[in-house]
Design a protein that fits this description.
Elements lengths: L1 H34 L3 H14 L4 H16 L4 H21 L4 H16 L3 H21 L4 H15 L3 H11 L7 H14 L4 H13 L3 H11 L9 H15 L1
InterPro entries: RMD1-3_a_helical_rpt, TPR-like_helical_dom_sf, TPR_rpt
Pfam family, one: RMD1-3
Subcellular location: Cytoplasm, Cytoskeleton
């Protein structure tokens, strides 16, 4: 009887080891697909991984962030919402696995930020509070996480540009929002650039902030630099096209 129990335990251990090894290899494959700018394929790979290991943190975070990016490219608002809800769901699962994970808090900040940008005043303000919370947590747990500063910069930019109706909704529903400013947005974006000088989206957003702050020469300098960078993500080519258009408008 003891031998049978030991044999069963050995077989279970072997199965779990093979699954863990398989999931690890699949995570590497998903990362490679993302690097090859095959984001839909990378997302499908993540879903395969999560069928084997639902708590695989790297797969959960990659799936969340891919959904945020893929969703942002959709044409219809309904399709965007579907992807952003998926992004939020994966981020929630990742936070259950490890609430102190910088990447998981970043995933949630990105998902909520994307949803905020397409929402009405009430939902936008509600999501905005969560964006700031999770972006700050991502930086707290990893002060060198470049995208955490980028999201915080975007939060500052958007709050600084809230219209009167949105500010009224914020005051009525939540007693107002923390102050956001272009100066803080620029500071956050510059910190992100320092930590990750290859992040093209950050250059575009930094240039927008400089332009809004009437610092045209700095905006031009940032845009020119962005156009020299190698595309890394599937979105980078279109972001560089937006940079070129803004640069042409400024010159």
């Amino acid at each position: 009887m003891l031998k049978r129990i030991m044999a069963v335990c050995f077989l279970l251990s072997a199965v779990l080891y093979v699954q863990a090894q398989s999931a690890s290899e699949m995570v590497a494959e998903a990362r490679q697909l993302e690097k090859q700018m095959k984001e839909s394929e990378a997302f499908e790979k993540d879903k395969e991984i999560l069928k084997i290991q639902p708590s695989e943190l790297d797969a959960l975070n990659q799936a969340s962030q891919l959904c945020s990016r893929i969703g942002n490219r959709q044409k219809s608002k309904d399709d965007k919402i579907s992807y952003f809800n998926l992004a939020k769901s994966y981020a929630e699962q990742a936070l259950k696995v490890n609430p102190n994970s910088p990447e998981s808090n970043l995933s949630m900040a990105i998902a909520m930020g994307r949803m905020a940008l397409i929402s009405g005043a009430k939902d936008k303000v509600a999501a905005s509070k969560e964006v700031k919370k999770y972006a700050e947590l991502s930086i707290k747990f990893n002060p060198s996480l470049a995208q955490g500063y980028h999201v915080l910069g975007k939060w500052n930019y958007e709050v600084a540009n809230l219209n009167a109706f949105e500010r009224g909704a914020a005051k009525m529903l939540f007693g107002g929002l923390p102050d956001g400013s272009l100066a803080n947005a620029i500071s956050n974006y510059e910190k992100c650039r320092q930590l990750d000088p290859a992040f093209i989206l950050n250059y575009y957003e930094l240039a927008r902030a400089y332009k809004a702050d009437d610092q045209q020469e700095k905006a031009i300098e940032v845009l020119k630099k962005a156009l020299t960078l190698r595309s890394i993500t599937q979105d980078d080519a279109s972001i560089k096209a937006d940079c070129k258009k803004m640069l042409d408008d400024l010159q």
